[in-house]
Input
Amino acid sequence: MDRKDFIKSVGYTCIGGSAIVALLQSCAGTNYFAQNILSENQIAVKKTEFVEVKKDKTLQRKYVLVKTTVFDFPICIYKLSEQNYTALLLKCTHKGCELKPHGDYLSCPCHGSEFSNTGVVLNPPAEENLKVFQVKTDQANIYVQL
Ligand code: FES
Output
């Protein structure tokens, strides 16, 4: 292989690698931020925020995220059943990093702590459970008491 061919093959390898990284990053950005109405000390989120329409399919989200002006961290609302939801502050109780939700649990990218979808520590180094907000529901909405 001469110098020119070597440079070409390295260039194609770099381009291919960049494309794969971009593809993986686009797959990782699947967290959905729900619309919400913030009143004095609660947020209201429509239950329909848990419905996801993809092409011809209607899917149910396991959780949605909510940003508020009250906290520096998002709140994750998990749907446990039709009438049962939990709302957790995505702040790790170890050193305060933002948690990442995955299906039925949350993990901390800083030191690896894991928490259940009800905020209970599953794996250290965190020792304290997450901040859990009181949640009420009616036919149409979920109300999170801040
Ligand atoms: S800050 Fe989350 S495990 Fe350390």
User: Anything to note?
Assistant: Confidence is low (pLDDT under 50) at residues 10-29. The radius of gyration is 20 Å. The first strand starts at residue 37 and ends at 38.
